[in-house]
Amino acid sequence: MKRHSTLLAFACLCFALPAQGDAFETARHKMVEEVAADAAFTSSYSGRATLNPNVVAAMKKVERHRFVPAELASYAYLNRPLPIGYGQTISQPFIVALMTDLMNLKEGDRVLEIGTGSGYQAAILAKTAKAVYSIEIIEPLGKEAARRLKSMGYGNVETRVGDGYYGWPEAAPFDAIMVTAAASHVPPPLIKQLKPGGRMVIPLGTHFLTQYLMLLEKQVDGTVTSRQILPVRFVPLTGGH
Ligand code: SAH
Which secondary-structure segment (H or E) carries 112? Predict the structure, then answer.
C-alpha cells in the first residue's frame, strides 16, 4: 500500500511539471505569434495566407538568443534584426520565417544558403530540410557560426568561408537556394546550381535604392520565372565578382 502511494505521488509530480524548455521559451513563442501576424498581414504580397507548420515549429524551437552577442540576448525575441558584429546583422525573425516559407521545403531537400552570419537562418533551414550548406565571406563570423551550430547539435549543416556568389559547385545541384544579403543581380552560378523545379529566394537591389525580396523558380526547361514579394532592407552581398 505504501509503495503504491509513493508511485502515485511520483505520477502526480510528473503531470504537474511544465514541459521542459529554456528560460526564453515563453518570449520565443510570443515572438512566433507576432511573426505569424506579420505573415497574415503581408499575405497579399507573399501569396501565403499562413506559414507552413514546419516553419512555425522551427521558429518555436531554435534558440535565437544563442545566435546573438551575449549582451543582446534579452532582445533576441523582439521581431527585429540585431547587430552581430563586423557591420552585419541577424535578420528580422519575420523575414527569416517568410524566406524559409517561400522555399516550400520538403523533408528530403538539400539547401544552399549564402550569408551564414550568425547561423540562425541555417538552423531554421536545418529543421525544415535534410541538409544545409551555408557560405559566409567574413571569416571570423563563418568560423563562429560553424562552432555554434556544431555545439548546438546541428549535424546536418555544413559551412564554409568564401564568396557565396560562386555557390558550392561540389555539393550542387540544390533543391533550394537562399541568399541573405542584397545583390544587384542574380548570380549566374547560383542559377546553374539550382535544380530544375527548384526555388531561390534573394533580395535584389542596392543599399541606396529599394531592395525587393524576389522568389525565383527554375522551370524544368531551365528557364527562370521571378516574382517580387516585398520591399526589404538587407546588408549588401560583397565579394570580388
Ligand atoms: N543569414 C544570417 C544573416 C546574415 S546577414 C543570419 O541568420 O544571421 C548577411 C551575411 O551575408 C553577412 O554575414 C555577410 O558577411 C554575408 N555575405 C555578404 N556577402 C557575401 C558573399 N559574397 N558570400 C558569402 N557571404 C556573404
Answer: strand 110-114
181 CA distance to ligand 1 middle (Å): 6
Q: pLDDT category, 239, cuts 50, 70, 90?
A: very high
> pTM for the complete prediction?
0.91
Structural domains in the chain, CATH included, are: 2-9+18-232 (3.40.50.150)
Q: What cell numbers appear for 7 in the block? A: 508511485
Residues in the chain, overall count = 241
* 91 labelled catalytic: yes
- The rounded Å distance from CA 52 to ligand 1 centre is 25
The pLDDT assigned to 206 comes to: 80
Residue 173, preceding bond cis, omega within 30 degrees?
yes
Task: List, in sequence order, every residue forming a beta bridge with 230; answer none if it has no partner.
Answer: 213
